[in-house]
Amino acid sequence: MENKQVEFENFREYHFVLLGYSEFKDVYAKFSENLKFYRIASLGKAETVEIIYDVPENTLTEAGIIISTVKESGKRYLRVKKISLLEGELKRPTQTYILGILDDNEEPSDYSMQLSQTIENAFTTQFTIDVDDVVKKVEPKIEIDISNDRYKLICGSGYRAELVYEKATYKDIKTKKTVEREGVTLRLPIEPCKESDELLKLVERKIVELAPYNLTRFEIAQKLLYPKIVEEDVQDNQDDE
After folding, report:
1. What is the pLDDT of residues 48-67, one digit of tens each?
2. Tens digits of per-residue pLDDT, 210-230?
3. The predicted structure's pLDDT at residue 89
4. I need a labelling partner for 163 at 20 to 30 A (CA). Which of 80, 111, 120, 239 fits?
5. Strand 38-54 relative to strand 160-172, pairing
6. Model confidence at 191: pLDDT above 70
7. Which of 49-58, 70-79, 227-236 is the least confident region?
């Protein structure tokens, strides 16, 4: 694996679903009409394949730890996300760590030591399990294939963001169940700023074709591939309150 030093992603993603018979051209037109001090530049098309890994008992994902490989632009990255399991306003931002670039014949389990150290450093509480031993046993669970058109949003202030129209296919690797969705993603700088707030307010107030779906890719996959299980988990949590 190249570049073994852990890096943080420097953007935050906001996902939206296209409603009804809406088309992306309508969304693009509204961004163009309302962003008076921005230039929209095409970044072309891209293909991304993300594979999410876990052990058969789903020990890691149930703890909010998402190990995945992400292949785009000919490179395959090893990534860890720490997601918040809280709901609504209590939900905290996702933490994302990029460990490096994998060869095609390498798997996350080959780097269990680096992964376990990253996971343990991301949590303030002590684990009661041997994280390294768990990571050594992970296997591919979910595949997400994304075809997208990317656009750079460039403001005169120097602010940069991305608007992405995407067609995503979510697949359970074991059962082969597949669900397709079209949507839009805003990739905004991780640091809060007025420009990011303005873009989110624009979507909320002006672009009725979009509805927020602000979940991680894993959470979206869970809701689409296993809706009954997700509903039962929600009901169990309500019963416990």
Report:
1. 999 999 999 999 999 889 99
2. 998 878 889 899 999 998 755
3. 62
4. 80
5. unpaired
6. yes
7. 227-236
Amino acid at 144: I
- The structure tokens 């700023």 sit at 193
State the DSSP string of the chain: -B--S-EE--EEEEEEEEPTT--HHHHHHHHHHH-TTEEEEEEEEEEEEEEEEE-TT-HHHHTTEEEEEEEETTEEEEEEEE-----GGGPPPPEEEEEEEE-TT--GGGGHHHHHHHHHHH-SSPPSS-HHHHHTT-EEEEEEEEEEEEEEEEETTS-EEEEEEEEEEEEETTT--EEEEEEEEEEEESS--HHHHHHHHHHHHH-TTEEE----HHHHHHHHH-HHHHHHHHHHHHHH-
